């Protein structure tokens, strides 16, 4: 994948979500001004935040695809997590804060008269249908990739190393819930004549956006810090190394996600003492090749020969993993 031409289903998902959110943001803003609904204006801010998020996610997809160079020998894969983290901040700053402002202003301010609620109803229904298209694409990608990994959707979302489909899925799910809340606020205001319901709907939308921003931010924070690879892959790598005839024991195994579908493997192993230096070198090259073939996501492999009886190394491994590693 080149920097100039990011491809893949994640790009399709993000572009579709961005186009839908931009159109919906304009519709909601116009309807909010016409109806005087705070909940509708909060939803407009919600869609603006989602549009900004899609722009940031597209930036993440493009910039993270750049090849490794002298300055960044492991590539730019983690840049995807940085821009995705900014997307989570955008949801909080642009969407949640405006929703809280609009909600508390409506609840504690002067009562506002509602005008032309029919316009609001029509826009909300249209927005729901349009968001449904984007959500269906995001759900299709999430379900398909979860099926490929033989996982449930919650497990996939917890372990996924590509923040784009998770971000779009969470955004679109929150958007559908937000539209229902805005509809209820508009309807109850229309039914009772009290703008209190409009304000409460706006506040609830703000809480919803804080929840989404927090979950996406926590995911990208963990990936930026350096999360280990999929536990199933880690276990498979450890078993593959332990089966090698040249290796007597796997003393330590560390993995880290360098980016989406990019894994760094660092292994400390105790080789058979009867092997010569050339034998160890050939074994390291062969094992690295076998790991690349078995796991396409494995990008770099470093194998260090160490004695399993070294007390300092043993203490470090036990401190990190406990006795479960042994």
TrEMBL record:
Q: What is its main location?
A: membrane
What parts of the sequence cross the membrane?
12-34, 40-61, 81-98, 118-138, 168-188, 200-217
Q: Does the keyword Transcription regulation apply?
A: no
What GO terms describe the biological role, i.e. biological process, of this protein?
zinc ion transport
Annotated membrane topology is: Multi-pass membrane protein
Pfam families assigned to the protein according to its UniProt record, in alphabetical order:
Cation_efflux
Q: Indicate yes or no for the key word Transmembrane helix.
A: yes
What would be one Gene Ontology cellular-component term for the protein? membrane
**Cation efflux protein transmembrane domain: which residues?**
15-224
Tell me which SUPFAM superfamilies the record gives: Cation efflux protein cytoplasmic domain-like (SSF160240), Cation efflux protein transmembrane domain-like (SSF161111)
- Domain of life of the organism in this record? Bacteria
The protein's UniProt keywords, in alphabetical order, are: Membrane, Transmembrane, Transmembrane helix, Transport
Q: Which GO terms describe its molecular function?
A: monoatomic cation transmembrane transporter activity
The record's subcellular location field reads: Membrane
Report what the protein is called: Cation transporter
Q: What is the lineage of its organism?
A: Bacteria, Bacillati, Actinomycetota, Actinomycetes, Pseudonocardiales
